[in-house]
Amino acid sequence: MKKVIKSILALCVVSLASCGSGTDEAQVQNSTTEPSEQGAGQSGVVDAVSNPNVVQVAIGSKDHTTLVAAVKAGELVDALSNAGPFTVFAPTNTAFDKLPAGTVEGLLKPEKKIDLQNILGYHTYVGTLKTEYMQDGQEFDMVFGGKVKIVKKDGKVFVNNSEIVASIPTSNGIIHVINDVLLPPH
């Protein structure tokens, strides 16, 4: 069986190589990139046809500008633009405003990047968690070594006592909008 699979793979590689052997000027022009785009990572891929990923959805939200600034400062744009799937509990700007004065500004400084990544990682789960499948009392391990707890009460779903006020499916997971910043355990 392994020989059959290897033979099929080899045939596919040869077929693909022979299909791309003739280049014309249009193909060469389409394959070139500007120097500033080289090495941009997954976030540098421009695709106007596919559904937006979690980062693109957040960028398009006027209520998540602080979260987007944090994701950029934490250098997590490429990571969260990858295939995933991810579940992101996305605090609104209002949620960040609830933090003590100067907290957000301090976390956005380059020397606080690791702390910021840990906080953002505590808002991210690898996998897709839809609210309709969440159970009361369930706990989930987040990217940053802590767990969040789900509570269902009066038809509403809460993560660490913060209500999920909206859920937005994306091409690489789901965003759950919350009105609080989740703080990782110490």
Describe the 3D structure.
The protein is α+β, with helices and mostly antiparallel strands and 186 residues long. The protein has helices at residues 2-19, 25-31, 54-59, 65-73, 77-81, 93-97, 103-107, 113-121, and strands at 86-91, 124-126, 139-141, 147-153, 156-159, 162-170, 173-178. It has one domain: FAS1 domain (Roll), CATH 2.30.180. 34% of the residues lie in helices and 20% in strands. The longest helix is centred in the N-terminal third of the chain and has 18 residues, at 2-19. Residues 1-44 have low confidence and may be disordered.
Label this structure with key terms.
single chain, 186 residues, alpha+beta, FAS1 domain, seven-stranded mixed sheet, 8 helices, 20% strand, disordered N terminus
Indicate the overall shape.
Answer: globular
Say how many strands there are. 7
Count of alpha and pi helical runs? 8
| Strand percentage | 15-25%
Mean pLDDT across the residues is: 80
Radius of gyration: 21 Å
The CATH topology corresponds to FAS1 domain
Name given to the CATH architecture? Roll
Query: First CA to last CA: what distance?
Result: 51 Å
**So what's the CATH class?**
Mainly Beta
Low-confidence stretches: 1-44
H/E series = HHHHHEHHHEEEEEE
Category by helix and strand content: alpha+beta
Residue share in helix: 25-40%
Overall structural domain count = 1
Q: Major sheet: size, sense and barrel closure?
A: 7 strands, mixed
Largest beta sheet: strand ordering: 2-1-7-6-5-4-3
